[in-house]
């Protein structure tokens, strides 16, 4: 049908190490599906320092960078490509503010309020723009029909 030609917007979501350790994945995925996202691709990877630093390169000059890399490499992460209309903004809205402690006060229904701990351990990532989404999706997934994760991460 003609609907097939309408490309849904895509964003990259990550359930961070504290999210996986805390067994929040199933609950988060339920929120994702209840919010009418399609999970187009999904992989579990263990980031190494180099790949985490590349992924968060925009923060390389920040005081929290080393700590962020340590956190993001502390265990496996679940990476998903989410699809729907307005996916980037809608996913950012659903996850809530960066600081999970703030989220618990200002946005208690948000994923970070439900599953996050603080400013760093905030459980989930969401692309901040269409341009970031494109880069981040290409970072984790080859553009092939087999949806293989790229070779610089260890797929689990
Ligand atoms: P994300 O990129 O992970 O979706 O988070 P975000 O856009 O809400 O926040 P961003 O500013 O991009 O920060 C990236 C991640 O770095 C950690 N962070 N630590 N001052 C701090 O200690 C600090 N600020 C940020 C968080 O894990 C944040 O999600
Ligand atoms: Mg960000």
From TrEMBL:
Domain (Nucleoside diphosphate kinase-like) spans 8-148
Q: Where does ATP bind?
A: 16, 64, 92, 98, 112, 122
Active-site residues are 125
Q: Which family does it belong to?
A: Belongs to the NDK family.
What this protein is called in its record is Nucleoside diphosphate kinase-like domain-containing protein
Q: Which species is this record about? A: Rubroshorea leprosula
Q: Lineage of this protein's species?
A: Eukaryota, Viridiplantae, Streptophyta, Embryophyta, Tracheophyta
């Amino acid at each position: 049908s003609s609907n097939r030609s309408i490309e849904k917007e895509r964003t990259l979501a990550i359930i961070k190490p504290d999210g996986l350790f805390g067994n929040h994945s199933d609950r988060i995925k339920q929120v994702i599906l209840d919010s009418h996202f399609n999970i187009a691709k999904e992989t579990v990877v263990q980031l190494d320092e180099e790949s985490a630093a590349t992924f968060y390169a925009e923060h390389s000059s920040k005081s929290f960078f080393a700590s962020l890399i340590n956190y993001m490499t502390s265990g496996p992460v679940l990476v998903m490509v989410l699809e729907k209309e307005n996916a980037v903004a809608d996913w950012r809205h659903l996850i809530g503010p960066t600081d999970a402690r703030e989220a618990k006060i200002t946005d208690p229904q948000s994923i970070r309020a439900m599953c996050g701990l603080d400013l760093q351990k905030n459980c989930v990532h969401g692309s901040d723009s269409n341009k970031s989404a494109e880069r981040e999706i290409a970072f984790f997934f080859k553009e092939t029909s087999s949806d293989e994760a790229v070779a610089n991460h260890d797929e689990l």
